[in-house]
Amino acid sequence: MTPAQALVDSAAAAESTLAPREGAASDTAPILRYRNPILSGFYPDPSVVRVGPWFFLVNSSFEMFPGVPIHRSRDLVHWEALGHVLTRDSQLPLAEAKPSRGIFAPTLRHHAGTFYMVTTNVSHGGNFLVTANDPAGPWSEPVWIPGQRGIDPSLFFDDDGKVYLTSTGSPSGIYQSQLDVATGELVGAPRLIWEGSGGRYPEGPHLYKIAGRYYLMISEGGTEYGHMVTLARASSAWGPFEPCPRNPILTHRNTGLDQPIQGVGHADLVEDGEGNWWIVFLAIRPQGGYYWHHLGRETFLASVRWDAQGWPSINEGQPIALDMQVRGLPERRTPASPTRDDFDARPPPGAASIGGLGAAWNFLRNPVHTSYSTSERPGWLTLHGTPISLDQADGISPTFVGRRQQHLDARIAARIDFDPTREGEEAGLVLYRSPQHRYELGVRYNAGAREVFLRQTIGAYVSVVTASAPAPARCPLVLQIDAEPARYRFAWRESASSELRALGAAEARLLSTEVTGGFIGIYVGMYAVAPDGAPASPAAFDWFDYEGRQ
Ligand code: 6LW
């Protein structure tokens, strides 16, 4: 029996016991202390499903490749990266995806042995679903769903075998249709089932059947400081839906700016196999007097208690906190991710990988595979720059590979061996937020010599080298970025020397969502660019350190 099969059998057993248990988790359940967010950094629009003893969670990914990261956990608190759902260009055409377009909110569900992930590629084709028996993949080719427009599609598998597809639509509201998951064909036209409780942008819908009633949970207010989660229920999947008298059931929209968590919304519910219910949702951690956030929308967790009337209260009706303490599942820690990627490791056979890189690494749009190699110079990641730079907002992907900044305080460093020979050739580290909002700490050829430089690009008008220093030729250098909640400090050293030379600092606020707009968070990564005309000087990275502090 395969692990996936074992999962299926235990899931089938669990599905029949969905009745909520009144009141809090049993007093015998262990106290679970955990830190929110449960997934820090750019992990918005979470969707979760339990299959047997395992929880699986996905997030939206926009123009990043691979798409739809998937994690697993045994206690809803400690999550292990399983990889991505969309790992092939055929599943994830992103050439037309401008910044913060591409893949919007996904939903993950499991039914009769099969995992289903449904989402929207707003830059190509709209709504589609993919399936897999093993959540680690491979996932199927897309089944497109041309009949239902809108975003934030969600699936509900009813006891009678019917499958419901719920999403946003126009005019504003939540629309639903019956779906043939094999073909993507709708059974009948989408119907408006609820307009929400009056907030703008009703979105992020999920339909559940709990204790024999259909619950429809959505978000309203838009994914900013006014975000909120609302709920309604009905005796039929088609309604009419009666709103929860306590709507919104979750929001921080009326909290003061001394509340460290803001923009709470876009949620999904899950029962933990012990009769306790939990909610995952997105939120932000504003900085600088709480007026801006740069890590993006992150994934948070809270407990759900059902009252005698069958309506939920989230976190005992208390605001969500960074430090949470609830009765829950026994703690199941996951291995900490190593600080250093020395590009020696080989991805497991069959695992989707670009250039032999691990699952934490993302690319902008569909990567040019030949620009990345961990075999060309074994033990090193070699990047080949092309004329496509990070300025480019769509089309061919630049030579860039990055990972999410997940901590307000972090040390990021890399050892680079790069000898540019032409003006315009450069490579190094980058803090990337969008084509017009990034900081580059790089090595370039300038005025006949090699130099280390710091460039700040802020909006359409500012892209200046704010500092540079001559660098000795033909020796590896170490580039370092120290992230602090409100600023980044940039430095470098000759690899053989320990003397770190400061090159400058820059504000984190200028890479924040409030300045840049958009839906992603900050990526820290490596890049290379080279003008046309001659083969690019290879930029080889010996190792990359990401050491998160807080
Ligand atoms: C997501 C939708 C939303 O699909 O933003 O603001 C979209 N709300 O629910 C991208 O995160």
Task: List the SSEs and their pairings.
Elements: H1 3-15, E1 31-35, E2 47-51, E3 54-58, E4 64-65, E5 67-73, E6 80-86, E7 107-111, E8 114-121, E9 126-132, E10 143-144, E11 154-157, E12 163-169, E13 173-180, E14 185-194, E15 203-210, E16 213-220, E17 228-234, E18 242-243, E19 250-251, E20 262-271, E21 277-284, E22 298-306, E23 312-314, E24 323-327, E25 340-341, E26 363-364, E27 372-373, E28 381-383, E29 399-404, E30 410-417, E31 426-434, E32 437-446, E33 449-458, E34 462-470, E35 477-483, E36 487-494, E37 501-507, H2 513-516, E38 523-529, E39 539-548
Antiparallel strand pairs: 1-24, 2-3, 3-5, 4-26, 5-6, 7-8, 8-9, 9-10, 11-12, 12-13, 13-14, 15-16, 16-17, 17-18, 17-19, 20-21, 21-22, 22-23, 25-39, 27-28, 28-39, 29-38, 30-35, 30-39, 31-32, 31-38, 32-33, 33-34, 35-36, 36-37
This protein binds (Z)-L-Arabinonhydroximo-1,4-lactone.
Question: If you had to describe this structure to a student in words, what would you say it looks like?
Answer:
The protein is globular, with a radius of gyration of 24 Å. The strands form nine sheets. Strands 25, 27, 28, 30, 35, 36, 37 and 39 form an eight-stranded antiparallel beta sheet that branches. Strands 29-38-31-32-33-34 form a six-stranded antiparallel beta sheet, with no helix packed on it. A hairpin with a 6-residue loop joins strand 36 (487-494) and strand 37. It has 550 residues and is mostly beta strands. It is built from two helices and 39 strands. The chain binds (Z)-L-Arabinonhydroximo-1,4-lactone (6LW). (Z)-L-Arabinonhydroximo-1,4-lactone is lined by residues 44-45, 60, 104-105, 151-152, 203-204, 222-223, 266, 519.
